[in-house]
Amino acid sequence: MDRPITTLFMLMSLDGKISPGASDALDVDKDFPKIDGLKEGLPQYYEIEQTTDLWSFNTGRVQEKMGVNQKPYPDKTPVSFVLLDNNHLTEHGVTYFCKKSQVFVLITSNKDHPAYNIKENNLHIIFQEKLSLKDALHELKSSYGCNKLTIQSGGTVNGLFLRAKLFDYIDVVVAPVLIGGKETASLIDGSSILSENELSELGVLKLIDCTVLNDSYIRVRYQVIN
């Protein structure tokens, strides 16, 4: 395979939502710990997260929401990070990930991205006039030695991975909650198919295992077979 083996790893509600609502002020990491019936089992998700691949893919929008443009710089971790971003990260946010990462790779279509002002040995930029996740993944493997990649981006970008047939495995922790709201981000968003001719764009799955966790949480793992 000329790209990394990919796993979509996410926490979602039973109805497939990855956020408590449609506002950026709402966030699972911030809000679930406040809710009785959810806060008790939430640490299991973070424990599982610590066992995922040493390469992690996310987006600048998600990280902006998490506050990396203001947070104090972190200690170095064993993880290498890949972020897709055009205009959400500041110079502080880019430096934050340089400090945190073994290798930090930024994928961007913005020639004026603040990352170009940062001089860090572990910072690498993949510039694309037009986004191609397939080409970016190929470069991650061929140029940076990324063989396995955990994806934790938002629903829209997850939808791009799905349509491009770039998911190999799905690993989802299901929280015991119904959230609702058609504007609320779900595991896979993006464009919908409109005809039978597009049925091949669906991601058909084969169950690997289903584990009942504590406090009514469930972990479900699949292989993508098409």
Automatic annotation (TrEMBL):
It comes from Roseburia inulinivorans. The keyword DNA repair does not apply. Pathway: Cofactor biosynthesis; riboflavin biosynthesis. It comes from the Bacteria. Keywords: NADP, Oxidoreductase. Residues 7-199 form the Bacterial bifunctional deaminase-reductase C-terminal domain. This is Deaminase. One of its GO terms (biological process) is riboflavin biosynthetic process. The keyword Oxidoreductase applies. InterPro entries: DHFR-like_dom_sf, RibDG_C, Riboflavin_Biosynth_HTPR. GO terms for molecular function: 5-amino-6-(5-phosphoribosylamino)uracil reductase activity. Transmembrane segments: none annotated. It holds the Pfam family RibD_C.
